Amino acid sequence: MVNPSRRRALQVMGLAGFTALTGRTAWLQVVAGPQLAARAKAERTVTWVNRAPRGDILGSDGTILASSAVSYDIGVDQLKIAQYEWTEDRTDPATGQRSKTVRGHGAAAAASQMAEILGVDAQELGASMVGESTYVVIAEAVPPDTWRQIKALGISGVEPDQRTRRTYPAGTVAGNVLGYTHEGDDRILIGSAGLELTQNEALTGTDGEGSVEIGKTGAIIPTGEQEEISAVPGTTVRTTIDPDLQAIAQDAIDEAVTAQGADWGCVVVMEPATGRVLVLADSGAVDPARAADTSEGDRNARSVQAIFEPGSVGKVMTFAAALEEGVITPDDSWTVPYTWTSADGQTFRDSHEHGVQQLTTAQVLAESSNVGTVQIGERLSSDVRHSYIERFGFGSLTGIEMPAESAGIVGPVSEWDDRTSYTTMFGQGIAGTALQSVQVLATVANKGLRVAPRLVDAWIDPGGGRSPQSRPEGVRVVSESTAAALTEMLIGVTQEGGTAEAASIDGYLVAGKTGTTEILTEDGTVASFVGFTPARDPAIAVAVIVYRPRDTYGGTVSAPVFRKVALATMHSLGIAPDPSVTAAQAAVDADARAEHAAQEATRGDG
To answer: What are the strands, taking DSSP E only, across 448-562?
Structure first.
């Protein structure tokens, strides 16, 4: 018989144990349960990031210049691979019973399954999967279809790393405009130069994510939670660049730079009325897919960054100011000696020695006479000329969608010494970019209205919605009458006797100005030609700059490049030649041939 006291003690102990067990169970279910369940779920849940494709960059015709491709780097957990068992389901034909047959173990078995899909040697692949690392990459940039085949094998320990890689289908075409990218710490592509940099926010998409629950063997739990959030691609940027013309211009400037042994060159083609830049070409263009293969100095766009004195191209601003202020007319006559000394003792000379000439204002410009130009410029105060230089765009950013654009250098009048007050009349003592130079002639071409250049035509969202770039408002620089008079004078530059006959184009009137200026910081010159065509109904303005060429003058170095690029652009835009221009040119050529024949006959008689 059990002692009552002992019975009660046992009952109390049992009750206490039951209470403790009940409390523990309740605590596990109510308090710790959710935490433990969440921890267990986290341990068996695999998550990944769905990388968002970066937006495309397109040419004006829709050609893809930059795009993104989603690919996978395939890695393995070498510790898990070592435990891998490759089994195969088999059915006994006699009994119909199903069984599993082991075909191999470890890295060798996994490699034999994956090698053919990846197109690699099985033994080398197997060797790369042996070790103590929890993650080692065995294949890079694998296409999604290939990864799906690998995934279907169900090999525990094989893990993908989804990545977005940038591709540039056109190679170096517009490379300096497009720029390039680098991969951030979170594997997101970040723009490093060009439009990739300035349009980075628009081009960058929003990553998605996914998750799935797996068992101890690495197999997906069919009843487990699975989640998939799709990525949102970046916005597509459509540019104003014409890829075909860009390629022609790059080839042309590369040929000129090579032939002249020059440091570099660039070409800009712009629509005067809209500001659309059809070509922004730099010599030795970078291939954005392999930017590191190009020297750092050649990776950016010198066309908007490098500054130089415009030389005689700057005379256009002086003549425009003098015409607008009414202090000269195109037909005024000027006595032009080879050298000329101002009242304050500053002496200037022309590029070629000559006797005293009587030239009209138009002839002074056509022959690019420094002596004639300073006589004309003297009729304007320095303050007035300075204001016109700024109104034409020198000394300020154009606002083009490119990084590190230079505003150029235009010092205040208070800093101009006695000589600078004169040299600025013919484009020395100030500095600007190729883009600013083309803007000057484009302003004249656009009837005196300066329109800011632009490279972005529209932004296209992932759903296809199009947001066009706003057309910049023009700034009145000179009157239409001044622009028309100056245009006729600039036509003379490309006609017989002008400094840029090599820029003339059969069937199209060309207005323009050559430029040659010494480089102050080093030996050499900058040769340029900037012009527009058709002169009386302009469609394009073009600047060609060659830095430190072997020859000196823009008329012989840069004008031929202008002719090639401008002619190709006329054909691309569908602008037919003017029959009257062709006939007039034929007459001039006939006169020249007749004069040459007469000279030959005279020599023969002698």
So the answer is: 449-450, 456-460, 466-468, 475-476, 511-518, 525-533, 540-547
Q: 500 with 513: CB under 8 angstroms?
A: yes
DSSP letter (8 states) at residue 146 = H
Pairwise CA distance, residues 579 & 544, whole Å: 27
Determine how many CB atoms are found less than 10 A away from the CB of residue 115.
16
In 479-589, the DSSP E strands lie at 511-518, 525-533, 540-547
Rounded CA-CA distance 215/329 in Å is 91
- CA atoms of 237 and 56, how far apart (whole Å): 6
Residue-wise pLDDT for 39-65, tens only, equals 655 566 667 677 888 999 999 999 999
Enumerate residues 6+ apart whose C-beta is below 8 A from 329: 323, 361, 485
Q: Over the stretch 7-22, which tens digit does the pLDDT of each residue have?
A: 676 666 666 666 666 6
Backbone angles phi, psi at 460, to 5 degrees: -120, 120
| Distance (Å) of CA 372 to CA 187, 421, 483 | 62, 15, 20
For 360-403, write each residue's pLDDT tens digit: 999 999 999 999 999 999 999 999 999 999 999 999 999 999 99
Q: Is-contact 456 298, C-beta < 8 A?
A: no
